[in-house]
Amino acid sequence: MCGIVGYVGPREVLPLILQGLKTLEYRGYDSAGIVILGEDLSLFKRQGKINALEKDLQGLHLDGRTGIGHTRWATHGAPTELNAHPHLDCDGNLAVIHNGIIENYLQLKAELLRLGHHFRSETDTEVIPHLIEEQLKSQSSLLGATLAASAQMEGAFALAVVSKRFPNQIVAVRRESPLVLGVGKGENFLASDIPALLPYTRDILILNNNEAALIEESGIQLFTLEGKALQRQPLSIDWDAKMAERGGYEHYMLKEIHEQPQALRETMVGHIDWDHSLVLLPEFPDDLLTGARRLYISACGTAYHAGIAGKYLIESLAGLPVEVEIASEFRYRRTPFVEGSLGLVISQSGETMDTLAALKRFKEQGIPTLAITNVQGSSVCREADHIFYTKAGPEIAVASTKAYLTQVLSLILLAVKLSQLKGQPQPELVCELKRIPLLAERVLAELEKTVQEYANRMRFLDDYFILGRGLDFASALEGALKLKEISYVHCEAYAAGELKHGPLALVTQGKQVCILATQRNLFAKTLSNLKEVKARGAEVLALSFPDGNELEADEIWSLPPTLDPLGPLLSMIPLQLFAYYMAKEKGCDIDQPRNLAKSVTVE
Ligand code: AGP
Question: What percent of the chain has pLDDT over 90?
Answer without folding.
Answer: 75
